[in-house]
UniProtKB/TrEMBL annotation:
[2Fe-2S] cluster binds at C31. It comes from Sphingobium boeckii. Belongs to the glutaredoxin family. Monothiol subfamily. This is Glutaredoxin. CDD domains: GRX_PICOT_like. Residues 18-82 form the Glutaredoxin domain. One of its GO terms (molecular function) is metal ion binding. Keywords: 2Fe-2S, Iron, Iron-sulfur, Metal-binding, Redox-active center. It comes from the Bacteria.
């Protein structure tokens, strides 16, 4: 991976409280996993930003190396890698994702 892509990813992760690297956009997700991740974030009322990896091949490949995680989407909260859509779903169902967001000031209390 290029140092440039690594630096851009690092900057994005650190600049946003909640950041989802996904395929597509929140309105038009390009895969089922990205769609599910957006649904979870929306249901939690999270304030989040997204990066469409399909728009930048460097980021698409680089994010997998950055997190050492092979799939997209990838969720970051306050600079920390949380996981992909399966982990998000497990955490959501267990109530852990809401607690994580509430603890980080990233979601509205509900």
């Amino acid at each position: 991976m290029s140092d440039d892509a690594q630096a851009r990813i690092d900057e994005l992760v650190k600049a946003n409280h909640v950041l989802l690297f996904m395929k597509g956009t929140p309105l038009f997700p390009q895969c089922g996993f990205s769609s599910r991740a957006i649904s979870i974030l929306d249901h939690l009322g999270a304030d989040y930003e997204t990066v469409d990896v399909l728009q930048d091949q460097g980021i698409r490949q680089g994010i997998k190396e950055y997190s050492d995680w092979p799939t997209i989407p990838q969720l970051y909260v306050n600079g920390e890698f949380v996981g992909g859509s399966d982990i998000m779903m497990e955490m959501y169902e267990a109530g852990e994702l809401h607690t994580l967001f509430a603890g980080k000031g990233a979601a509205q209390a509900g």
